[in-house]
Write a structure and sequence with these properties.
By secondary structure, this protein is mainly alpha-helical. The protein has helices spanning 2-6, 17-24, 30-41, 53-58, 65-71, 73-76. Helix 2 packs across helix 3 (30-41). It is extended and about 35 Å long. 0% of the residues are buried.
Length: 77
């Protein structure tokens, strides 16, 4: 979606857990990193369920990723 919105190719580069850990250690407390990597890399089934929390907190429906890309397109340029 980002590539399409920009009209150019965007490459995704997957980091190993060790590379991600080293990068996150630059700005996150050590005790938070492994839990964050677990949620991002090995989410539990309950963590994959769409929740009503966004709508409950913001009092509006959640937006799609495509809508988010469009609203934040200048960030990618």
């Amino acid at each position: 979606m980002i590539s399409r919105a920009l009209g150019e190719e965007v490459t995704f580069v997957e980091l190993s857990r060790e590379q991600a850990h080293a990068h996150m250690a630059q700005f996150m407390p050590e005790e938070v990193i492994d839990g964050t990597l677990d949620v991002l890399g090995l989410p539990l089934p309950a963590e994959q369920v769409i929740s009503p929390d966004v709508e409950n907190v913001l009092r509006r429906p959640a937006r799609s990723f495509g809508e988010w890309v469009e609203r934040n397109l200048s960030t990618f340029r």
